[in-house]
Specification:
Layout (H helix, E strand, L loop, with lengths): L17 E5 L6 E2 L22 E2 L8 E5 L10
Antiparallel strand pairs: 1-4, 2-3
């Protein structure tokens, strides 16, 4: 039973902690979100998140992980 006068507080989403960049094109890399297959399927226990993909060439790639600091802007010559 709920106590009177208590309301749920909204959760504030923060920015991601790490930034993943692809080694092939040096562009941000993304990963597909996890999709729930169900409890009764055989693949539910072996399901993974997949690999990172480059946003430029859309190929699976290996990544460099760095701290996500938005106040530091990379300088270009």
């Amino acid at each position: 039973m709920k106590k009177p006068g208590r309301k749920p507080k909204p959760v504030q989403k923060d920015k991601p902690v790490f930034l993943y960049t692809s080694k092939c094109c040096n562009a941000p890399a993304t990963k597909a979100p996890c999709v729930f297959l169900g409890y009764r399927t055989k693949e539910a226990g072996t399901q993974g998140l997949g690999t990172f993909r480059c946003t430029v060439c859309h190929k699976p790639c290996s990544c460099n992980r760095t701290k996500n600091s938005l106040d530091k802007v990379p300088e270009t010559c």
